[in-house]
Amino acid sequence: MQIVLNGATIDIKEGMSINDMLAELGFQDQLIAVEVNQEVIPRGEHISFILSSRDVVEIIHAVGGG
Questions:
Q1: C-alpha span between 47 and 13 (Å, rounded)
Q2: What is the reported pLDDT for 45?
Q3: C-alpha span between 44 and 42 (Å, rounded)
């Protein structure tokens, strides 16, 4: 199945959760926010939120400043 991730179309397995996708892409231990179809998904929901075909996903890296 295909989703749009940060502007690029990618193939992922059917029934993948956000948590599964992050682990497969190597993001599981990073400080990030995930938005699906313009809605921020809380970290506590990443394990249960199942992605659907054609979802538009944005992974946003936390950046510190000062």
A1: 15
A2: 97
A3: 5
Select from 54, 60, 40 the least CA-distant residue to 11: 54
Q: How far is CA 47 from the centre of its chain?
A: 11
What is the side-by-side strand order in the sheet with 39-41? 8-11, 2-5, 56-61, 32-36, 39-41
Q: Where are the beta strands (DSSP E) in the chain?
A: 2-5, 8-11, 32-36, 39-41, 56-61
pLDDT of residue 66: 62
* pLDDT interval class at 62 (50, 70, 90): confident
Tell me whether residue 34 is exposed, middle or buried, using C-beta atoms within 10 angstroms of its C-beta: 0 to 12, 13 to 18, 19 or more: buried
